[in-house]
Every structure is written in C-alpha cells, then in structure tokens.
Amino acid sequence: MLAIAGSKGGCGKTTMTIGLADAFARMGTPAIAVDADRQLPNLHVVAAVDRKPTIADLEKATDVDDVVHSRPGTDDVGVLPATDATKVDLEAAIDRLRRCPERVLLDCPSGAGPDVIESLEYADRVVVVATNTDRGLRGAETTIDVARRLGVPVAGVIINRSNGVTETLESRLEAPVLGTIPEHDAPLTGTLPRDAFDDVAGRLTLGESSVEKRRDDESRL
Ligand code: ADP
Ligand code: MG
Question: Which residues surround ligand 1 with Cβ inside 6 Å?
Fold first, then answer.
C-alpha cells in the first residue's frame, strides 16, 4: 500500500495517483487507486468515474470488484471514490484492500493534520509530491518529517510541473527524487504524460526490488 502525499494543496497528489496507477497497469501490475481525501474527495473526477459506489459500500459487498470502478480507457486500473465516506469506512476499506493482489495507491489529503497521519499510518511506504518552488519544497519537507516520525519509509519525491531536477534537491530533501512530471494540458481528459509516469513507476519498482534484495542478502548472512 503506497500513500501519495504532499502537504501543499494542489501540488498534484490526485493527478500523480492516477498517473502512477495507469503506469503500473502498463507495466503489468494491476492497481487500485483509493480516495483517502474524505473532506475534498475528487479522485473520481480525475479518474473519470462515477462518484458512487464508494469505499462506504465495500463493507456490504461480497466481491471487491462489485464496488471498484474500472477506469475508462485503461486495463487493470480500479478506482474507489470517497464521497460521503467516514473514517470508519476508510479504515474498513483499507483492511479489506490489504488482502487484494493489486497494488493499492492512497490519494492522501493535503496538510499534515490527523487525516493525513491516519492515511500515512495505513501505508507501507509514502511517495511525496512537490512543486519545485521554495513553498513547494517546504511542503515536501513537512510531509517527509511527518512520515519519518511515524516510521513510514519515504520511497521518494516526485517533482511535479517541472522539466528537470537538480541534484541539490535530493540533498535538500534528504530523499531520492523519483522523477519529474512536466506541465501538461487537459489533465482531466486522460492525456497524462505517459513516459514521465512510466519512468517514475519504474524507479519506484526498482527501489522496492533493491530493498527486497537487501533483505534477502541479510537473511542469508
Ligand atoms: P492535489 O491532489 O495535491 O490537491 P491535484 O492533483 O488535484 O492536486 O492538482 C491540482 C490542480 O493542478 C488540478 O487542476 C490538476 O489538473 C492540476 N495539475 C496537477 N499537476 C499538473 C501538471 N503536471 N500539469 C498541469 N496541471 C496539473
Ligand atoms: Mg487531491
């Protein structure tokens, strides 16, 4: 379970959640994007699916697939909206989704309040989204601090709305930069920049396999 977080509102968490879910599916890994932003749920809008059913309907469903929406135009991307969902609904949904074979991505709320902490605590790892401005980077630093205090590993940072990245960013953030996503037109119409998202998803997967390998090597010693 991967949390997509970033304290600054509008930095691109929801867009990155869908862009990454699409990229994982292209790599052959089915993904489910879950709206964990219960106060301002809009993942369904960006994903172009209906607002209902939602995570609140999961409890009554025999099969997860009865509630998960299929994202139009993609194979293997599921979407779970959070319109009118409670904290308890989200918790129950996450418990159930943990048992699913798909890769689950949590679209976190903005800020660094209790709802963000709650979403980060569910996650195995967090991807931080930031824009390359001083305010944007300070927002990323806040999220990285919160994650580290909670003991949730930071998989890396995505620099959104940018065409290039300097090494100084990695030393400032003390976290790997997974890649940059350029400014693009009409993000709601499904024209997300594929290559950039494929690169970020590839780097995320590589990072995971090196952690797995280190664990294997250590257990063999
Ligand atoms: P968050 O979930 O962090 O609040 P969103 O993903 O909803 O942010 O993005 C906020 C706004 O910025 C949306 O209108 C979205 O379409 C736009 N946006 C995000 N990333 C990009 C990008 N790389 N290029 C152009 N517009 C973007
Ligand atoms: Mg959002």
Answer: 6, 9-15, 110, 160-161, 181, 183-184, 187
